[in-house]
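re: ur question from yesterday

yeah so i grabbed the chain u mentioned. its 220 aa long if i counted rite. heres the sequnce exactly as i have it in my notes:
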Amino acid sequence: MPPPQARGAQVKPARMKPTRPLLPREFVAAHKKRRIMDAIAELSAESGYEATSIADIVRRAGVARKTLYDNFEGKEEVFLTALDGAIAEARQRVEAACEAASEDWRQRIEAGLAALLTYVAEQPAYARTWVIEALSATPASSARCDEAVRQFIELLRGSVPQGTGLPDTIEETLVGGVAWILHQQIRRGEAEQALDLLPELTEFVLSPYRGVANPGPGTS
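ran it thru and got these structure tokens back, copy pasting raw so excuse formatting
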């Protein structure tokens, strides 16, 4: 006797598994490149730049060695690209925060510091790459750190009151002091708690201008 299916029962067609959409090649390439940069930042933070090898990077990134060399000339270029990205992102966050703050220069300074400290807390490996490892990794990375400091000095100089009679080097001193405090915080392995420094650093940066700046909104 024929089975029930053969006596007029309709057989449902087999359900086909949905095909996974192909990601654009450019997206995949950019994602792999980012993984390589993340890997060198993490490894440098853990073991130092000198102790990090190409084999370590590709293993951590989960890519082939050929993929690394398709995008970078070698370890130093990977490190410098990661460093450039870290500095650029931090600067963009600080600039955006300052622009979004009120016209009161004190609030702009605090907003910029909060943005910088938030970046350090959210990206501890990249922060260590920039603030610690890059200082001695290569001559090129050291030069990039010097340029980053110069940019932050100019940003501060453009945000504070003018004609205060303070020394011309005051902004250089203040930025250097903030960098040193961050250096110590990160070296202690406390980058994630960087925002705890906001009251201290805000007072440190604002204090030289109190009493010599023109009164503004919020002056007591």
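noticed a couple things. Confidence is low (pLDDT under 50) at residues 216-220. also The domain at 80-209 is CATH 1.10.357 (Tetracycline Repressor; domain 2).
anyway ttyl
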